[in-house]
Amino acid sequence: MNKVILMGRLTRDPEVRYSQGERAMAIARYTLAVDRRGRRGGNGDDSAQTADFIPCVAFDRAGEFAEKYFHQGTKLVVTGRIQTGSYTNRDGQKVYTTEVIVEDQEFAESKNAASGNSDGGYRPAERPAPSSAIGDGFMNIPDGVEDEGLPFN
């Protein structure tokens, strides 16, 4: 089985090109910086953090979506498959490639969190006014409400 799931941030805006032919198809290429946690040898820093830079390719509608909504720094979750390949460059040297072919991509944080709002888009519900509560913290049940509709019966 060839399945990969990544979460990381875009290193730059996606590069999008369109295929030639009767039906032009978007091909978006982008790189995800994916955190790698590990131990560094000898310096006592157990929380050392580095990143792997994973090239990803999204086709067709996924490519169009990437072009429209993704930009440098966007945090994404990508699922797909790893594909390897090779080609000969202009100098006659064989170059090997590895990239993730995107099957699904989605935002990994809210727009508010991405813009620096530290609450991640969460807004706590407003509490009912104190006048609607009895002194022990429970709300009064209005007259006419049947007990069968309450969740604790």
From TrEMBL:
<dbReference type="GO" id="GO:0003697">
    <property type="term" value="F:single-stranded DNA binding"/>
</dbReference>
<feature type="region of interest" description="Disordered">
    <location>
        <begin position="107"/>
        <end position="153"/>
    </location>
</feature>
<keyword id="KW-0238">DNA-binding</keyword>
<dbReference type="GO" id="GO:0009295">
    <property type="term" value="C:nucleoid"/>
</dbReference>
<comment type="subunit">
    <text>Homotetramer.</text>
</comment>
<dbReference type="GO" id="GO:0006260">
    <property type="term" value="P:DNA replication"/>
</dbReference>
<dbReference type="InterPro" id="IPR011344">
    <property type="entry name" value="ssDNA-bd"/>
</dbReference>
<dbReference type="InterPro" id="IPR012340">
    <property type="entry name" value="NA-bd_OB-fold"/>
</dbReference>
<protein>
    <recommendedName>
        <fullName>Single-stranded DNA-binding protein</fullName>
    </recommendedName>
</protein>
<feature type="compositionally biased region" description="Acidic residues">
    <location>
        <begin position="144"/>
        <end position="153"/>
    </location>
</feature>
<dbReference type="Pfam" id="PF00436">
    <property type="entry name" value="SSB"/>
</dbReference>
<dbReference type="InterPro" id="IPR000424">
    <property type="entry name" value="Primosome_PriB/ssb"/>
</dbReference>
